[in-house]
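Bit of a strange request maybe. I'm writing a small parser for structure token strings and I need a real example to test against, not something I typed by hand. Could someone generate the tokens for this chain?
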Amino acid sequence: MTRRRELGVVALLFVLALALRLVAPEVSPPGFNDDELSNALVISQHVRDGDIRLYYADASGHEALYHILAAPLVPLFGTTHVGIRGVSILCGALSVALLYLLVRRLWGRAAALVAALGLAFSFWSLIYSRTGQRHISLTAFALLAFYCWWRGMAVARAPAGAGVRRAQCAMAGSRRQGRR
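Reply from user aminoacidic:
Good idea to test on real output. This should exercise your parser:
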């Protein structure tokens, strides 16, 4: 598969995941729950007011990153499904594409396609993507961190591995010469 075609597959997976998370948002789950409203209207309001922290003690405590990302959506889209659940929808769809990229690096394209399709249609991924809660962001950020770490290890391994191999060959050669 060419690089361009694979990019098309990843884009198609992302669009599929996004569509599954955007179709009939008012039906499943029906309405907003109190946690979603607390997140969007109380905690994210702190960010909109300029009160940026690492941790908010409201609603039993919340880390700030999700709310920093969600803060502009309510002013842009109002208290609609996209305004309250937009970051979760995006995190869920991005997780599918990120899972494909990570699994492709680890086990190949076939495994990556199966894993990404499984996550795209997974009940738990869908339900958390369709609610305005920060839990789904963990999947996206963890996959992004694993992917970046794995890429960094591959880049770091090549020159270091070559250097170690050269040193081993040099040591082996010097040992042979000393035994003559």
